[in-house]
Amino acid sequence: MQLTPLFTLIGRALVRTVLMLWLVASVTFLAIRALPGNPVDVWVQELQGTGLSAEDAREQATRLLKIDVDQPLWTQYLDYLGNLARGDLGDSVILSPGTPVTDMLGERLLWTLFSISFALVIGFLIGLYLGSLAAYRRGTWVDRLITNVSALMSSIPAVLLGIVLTFCVGVAWDLVPIQSLRGAYSPDVQPGFDLDFILSALAHVIAPGIVYILVSFGTWALVMRSNALSVLADDHVGQARARGLSERTIRVAFVQRNARLPLITGFAISMGFVVSGSVLVERIFVYPGVGQLLADALARRDYTVMQGVVVATTITVLLATAIADALYGWLDPRTRIEQHA
Amino acid sequence: MLRSAAVTLLALVTLAACSDDPASDAEGDRGEAGTLELVSAEIEAEPPGDVAEGTRYVVTVNLTPGVEWSDGTPLTAQDFLGQYDILWAQQAGLWESLTDVRATSETQLVFEASELSMNVMRQILRSNQTAASSQFGDIYTRLNQLRTSGADPAGPEVAAVLEELDAMAPTDPVAYGPFVIDPSSVTAQQMRMVKNDGGFNADKIGFDRVDVAWGQTQQTVPLILQDELDYTTDALTPSDVQAVEAKPNIELIRTPLGTGTGLWFNESIKPFDDKRFRQAVALVIDRERNAKVSLGDAGKPIEHMAGFSDTYVGDWLSEDVVAALNPYERDEAEATRLLEEAGLVKDGDTWTYDGEPLAFEITAPTDFPDFLASGKDVSAQLNEFGFQTQVRGIPAANRPDTILQGRYEAILDFSLVSAPEHPATSLDWNMAAGFFGTNNPESEGSKGLNWPWQQQAPDGTEVYIPDLLAEAVAGLDEEPQQAAVETLAQIFNDQLPVIPIFERWTTDPIAHGPRVTGWLASDHPVYENNQANDPYVAMQLLGGVLRPAEGADGSFHTSAAYAQPPNFSWNYYAGNSMYNTLTTPSYHATLPPLMWWSNAIDAWVACVAESYSVAEVG
């Protein structure tokens, strides 16, 4: 490949990425401000719930919040874009006034990556395996079992599964203390790079991890089964069999490889969305991830934090998609040939 | 809907699990109840000496001596004076009534006021806790100097000090309550309050610590069911109540909360502006069914339709007035007559107005499940009667704008509010500008509900609603207020600017064991208090009524949806102060008020302050 077309390709990709970011950032900016109820109103309602009269609550909220909700929209927008261009997501206005959103994201991101990414990978691998198995055993009880269970699990909302898991394991069967299902580590353990902390963090990730795995593997299994069935019906698989290749070789080299290709992009995008966490699951398990941060920001109308989470998610999805494109080229030689051509 | 289904399913699972749990039966032992005497803390006033210009009343508050902050410094009147100087600098509305505040000794605070009302007394005695002089003493002193030297609170000098105050970032919490937050214990799921040995009543309280689990109903119900919480104020759904009640060691405290729902009609739209239409709707709605559907036993249908909680009616309305109120018991025939008088026509099964089917939307906040359920049931009932209604859900955060701008045809919202506890609070909410601009008929802009303020009293005289509302809260003497409240109640009952539906009662779970014992019996007068305003559990905890159960670890477990780390500050005065996000009883365990109000004896009772007096000048 010559350098000029390569630079053109990279240039186009960059322009496309920047445009996409601007679009998402702008739509997010407008959508958030279109939400009725500003931070002051929300705070007033909360203060009223603590027994303050309406007037006192309004007075206290106005006094404590340093945000100017009446600033012209254009001024806010230009400030926002200017900061974004410098890589600055701004400072929190409500949750932690003055704290950079990037710091807040950084603090929560590790926990979200820790809890979701492993679970997504495990769920993806289980889905691929079960999908392939169902395809090979098409029409048998194994196929019916995998298909039905996968369809069931993929249709159960994660939040419901989280609640059921908590109640069954913690309350109904009393297998573990509820406290051990809450948070990222036990309250009696101090964060640090030691065995106690690592074991505690691993123990606390099991419950949300199981939920993520259970709700994700079904979709992958169903798609994989469908793709594998399609590949199995292809002529080249029949030809391979006619050539006397072993069933194992056919499955690995012909079926699985071709069937899983279309799933790569989907998986990469879902990995990109890891950043936004799973708002509801993190809420149930009181897990201190980005999802919880987003939920808090939404509830308190912390505009900059909400924007920050959405922009960070967009960036990671774009990155993940780019990585998926690259992986695609590596996994599928045909795309490399097309690019060279 | 999804959550309700999940909780119902889980309640069934849990009920099944609990029913055959022998350990639970053993925990049903309630232990011996503690004692708590409710006594007025008011003492005879001394004749006032020199007072600031314009002063008509002097309120003297005497702190309990010997209380210490958790850093070892003594709690003094100067600490509270500092709080009032900050309120002055922030131009708080309270200072429209105050003329001066002074600390006349280490333990005595003197408030001078141009006017006193229940609201002002509440601000002085109950609402304003404070932060330590050891952390904020410099700010306190400088603001006091500015105030007493006649500085303008809106001036640049005061603003500069407030900027400094806002920027302060103490590294540790300091408290004068019996417990102080251990900063190293604050995680996303739990925080721990440890004993402040010199704190208020610390020697009378048997617990060594208070563990506060992070969460709201969704997170706390499993903890209640696993005996991990001793008390929470989280609102339980009817299915949660079923599951929790199945545990023999859990008792649900059911007291009026002073809040509840009502149906509002935008009176800028015809025929909603016709009182006969609203009266007819009130006669059609089965309030008992609606309350049951929305909150189970925690919803009590409104009986008197007076515009405020039924629990105030006996104290504020004469028997004659009560007898004259229309209770709007269900009566479809009378409703039909009123609607026909108002110009509506029944065409087959459908009511029509101006030849068109009477169709309207009922807006309801989706994140208040009881409100949404109430709205859906009202809609169903009205549709059964021949209207064409549908429910539109909005996030609760949208309520202020929706109400202020009158962006609704009908809306399911509060008809009862209770802070401060006075009938005028709800009446103001229902009839006047309220807080969100509830009703602004004379506004050039949005008129909100648009119910007229010029009304006729039952005796035929013309009255102006805002004036009557001001009369209803003026001064501390309830007798002249009562006349205004009676007139307002009768106007409300006739006009129904808002149609009240039900009042919410608490379903607060208290756990008799495994950790806590001594709970006051449910007929104790302390439970006449409003949970949100003067919480009965905080009073029991701080009064030393509650004690650790035998063999327990000395901890008290409660919950609060406090600010998640690191999104908080230990600066008591900061917008993101941790203290702003605590609820009762954790907030009061670390920062108790000067006094509590007791509904049972209609008086202020001692807490951090041991007594108070009110003197009239001249």
From TrEMBL, chain A:
<feature type="transmembrane region" description="Helical">
    <location>
        <begin position="261"/>
        <end position="285"/>
    </location>
</feature>
<feature type="transmembrane region" description="Helical">
    <location>
        <begin position="197"/>
        <end position="223"/>
    </location>
</feature>
<dbReference type="GO" id="GO:0055085">
    <property type="term" value="P:transmembrane transport"/>
</dbReference>
<keyword id="KW-1133">Transmembrane helix</keyword>
<feature type="transmembrane region" description="Helical">
    <location>
        <begin position="109"/>
        <end position="130"/>
    </location>
</feature>
<dbReference type="GO" id="GO:0005886">
    <property type="term" value="C:plasma membrane"/>
</dbReference>
<feature type="transmembrane region" description="Helical">
    <location>
        <begin position="305"/>
        <end position="331"/>
    </location>
</feature>
<dbReference type="InterPro" id="IPR000515">
    <property type="entry name" value="MetI-like"/>
</dbReference>
<dbReference type="InterPro" id="IPR035906">
    <property type="entry name" value="MetI-like_sf"/>
</dbReference>
<comment type="similarity">
    <text>Belongs to the binding-protein-dependent transport system permease family.</text>
</comment>
<feature type="domain" description="ABC transmembrane type-1">
    <location>
        <begin position="109"/>
        <end position="328"/>
    </location>
</feature>
<keyword id="KW-0813">Transport</keyword>
<protein>
    <submittedName>
        <fullName>ABC transporter permease</fullName>
    </submittedName>
</protein>
<feature type="transmembrane region" description="Helical">
    <location>
        <begin position="151"/>
        <end position="173"/>
    </location>
</feature>
<keyword id="KW-0472">Membrane</keyword>
<keyword id="KW-0812">Transmembrane</keyword>
<feature type="transmembrane region" description="Helical">
    <location>
        <begin position="13"/>
        <end position="35"/>
    </location>
</feature>
<dbReference type="Pfam" id="PF00528">
    <property type="entry name" value="BPD_transp_1"/>
</dbReference>
UniProtKB/TrEMBL annotation, chain B:
<dbReference type="GO" id="GO:1904680">
    <property type="term" value="F:peptide transmembrane transporter activity"/>
</dbReference>
<dbReference type="GO" id="GO:0015833">
    <property type="term" value="P:peptide transport"/>
</dbReference>
<dbReference type="InterPro" id="IPR000914">
    <property type="entry name" value="SBP_5_dom"/>
</dbReference>
<protein>
    <recommendedName>
        <fullName>Solute-binding protein family 5 domain-containing protein</fullName>
    </recommendedName>
</protein>
<dbReference type="InterPro" id="IPR039424">
    <property type="entry name" value="SBP_5"/>
</dbReference>
<dbReference type="Pfam" id="PF00496">
    <property type="entry name" value="SBP_bac_5"/>
</dbReference>
<keyword id="KW-0813">Transport</keyword>
<feature type="domain" description="Solute-binding protein family 5">
    <location>
        <begin position="58"/>
        <end position="423"/>
    </location>
</feature>
<comment type="similarity">
    <text>Belongs to the bacterial solute-binding protein 5 family.</text>
</comment>
<feature type="signal peptide">
    <location>
        <begin position="1"/>
        <end position="19"/>
    </location>
</feature>
<keyword id="KW-0732">Signal</keyword>
